[in-house]
TrEMBL record:
Residues 15-185 form the Glycosyltransferase subfamily 4-like N-terminal domain. It comes from Chamaesiphon minutus (strain ATCC 27169 / PCC 6605). Residues 202-366 form the Glycosyl transferase family domain. GO terms for molecular function: glycosyltransferase activity. Keywords: Transferase. It comes from the Bacteria. This is Glycosyltransferase.
Length: 389
């Protein structure tokens, strides 16, 4: 069985979706499926330095990269138009048994579904939260028009739509699409490697006292992440000792808004803005923190939350995060309403009883490693593919 996964970008700059797709394809290949990726050379504001138009191994996955149109206007650039991708796909789509399309409202997703429909190749799609109610509201009338005029026919032509949590499934159901949905979560890339003395090493790197509580936000800096609630909530508990680590990057305009929020909350001197991190630095931040906070308006799954749970770092999430029901039901962390008072209450509780947070983290690690690995998810996905043939 030969499967093509299509996504606008596999760049780390695009967040968890890019990594999840690479992990998914790698897991399918480990199960004996001939799976590949076709994408553009998008790298946020820049372009990846990769070979174009031919198969290359990228992060241990066979990947075809194609040139992305790169105008100055960010909205057009992010749409990821690629004429060379279109030509290649039209010529090669019949070589694949199933096409798996990731991330909607992009040129690659739209043209792939249209070509697959035209050529009679079965396809499924994974929206990665782009059909959630909050996400659809952010584009205003433009996104609704695009959905109804173009993407709805493509979605109705999909054999199935994969969602990663029940909330996403409920949101998709309100759109009255013809395609059936199925819930299949994402998973961990690998079993995390524990860093000895991570807490000590992190505090040394930040020039903090060795017993300083650290609250970590690690994600893209974007309006959907709810920092306009988290930062003021931290400002409500300044009588407590803590350092706030803000790891991620965003547009210059939004980063300026973050700086203003920090100043207004009176926590500029308690905050370390460390920018985009990956690899060992990212692992050290997650493992050395006392609490991982993600107070998003909408997060269809939350890979970064899963990464924190897997190393025993308790999490604070809001109901818009797809993993929130699991966090609440299994006692893996804390779920606060998306308002400043509720978030501040949880933060104060954690800082008052760090031993409780640690015991919750230990339970979270065991549960996550038992239930969120890629092999069983890949096996279920293969069953879905086979049912289409």
């Amino acid at each position: 069985m030969k499967i093509l996964h299509v996504i606008p970008s596999v760049s780390p700059a695009r967040g968890g979706t890019s990594r999840a797709v690479l992990d998914m394809v790698r897991a399918l290949r480990d199960c004996g499926i001939d799976a590949e990726i076709a994408t553009t050379n998008d790298d946020g504001d820049n372009l990846l330095d990769v070979p174009l138009g031919k198969s290359t191994i990228y992060d241990r996955v066979p990947t075809y990269f194609f040139a992305r149109f790169s105008p100055q206007l960010p909205a057009l650039r992010d749409f990821a138009f690629s004429g060379s991708f279109t030509n290649w796909l039209f010529q090669n789509v019949t070589k694949y048994d199933v096409i798996h399309v990731h991330a909607l409202f992009s040129y690659t997703a739209t043209v792939t579904m249209a070509i697959a429909r035209f050529r009679g190749i079965p396809y499924i799609t994974t929206p990665h939260g782009m059909l959630c109610a909050w996400s659809l509201q952010q584009g205003g009338q433009k996104k609704q028009t695009y959905l109804n005029a173009i993407e709805r026919a493509n979605l109705n032509g999909a054999r199935s739509i994969q969602v990663t949590c029940q909330q996403e499934s409920d949101d998709v159901a309100t759109l009255n699409l013809k395609s059936q949905t199925f819930v299949l979560p994402l998973a961990l890339t690998d079993t995390p490697v524990q860093i000895p003395d991570a807490a000590k090493l992190l505090r040394q790197s930040l020039n903090c006292a060795l017993d300083e509580p650290i609250i970590l936000f690690l994600s893209r800096l974007h309006y959907k992440k709810g920092l306009e609630y988290l930062i003021p909530a931290l400002g409500r508990i300044t009588e407590r000792r803590f350092t706030f680590v803000l790891a991620g990057n965003g547009t210059p305009a939004y980063e300026a808004e973050i700086q203003a929020l920090l100043a207004d909350a009176g926590i500029e001197q308690r905050t370390r803005m460390v920018g985009f991190v990956e690899g060992e630095r990212k692992d050290l931040l997650i493992q050395g923190a006392n609490l991982f906070a993600l107070t998003s308006h909408s997060e269809n799954f939350g890979i970064s939350v899963l990464e924190a749970l897997a190393v025993g770092t308790p999490v604070l999430v809001t109901p818009g995060v797809g993993l929130a029901p699991v966090v609440s039901d299994k006692g893996l962390g804390f779920v606060a309403d998306l308002d400043i008072e509720s978030i501040a209450h949880v933060l104060d509780r954690v800082l008052t009883d760090l031993d409780l947070a640690k015991s919750i983290g230990d339970r979270a690690r065991q549960f996550t490693l038992e239930h969120y690995t890629w092999e069983p998810i890949a096996v279920e996905l293969i069953r879905v593919y086979r049912d289409l043939l």
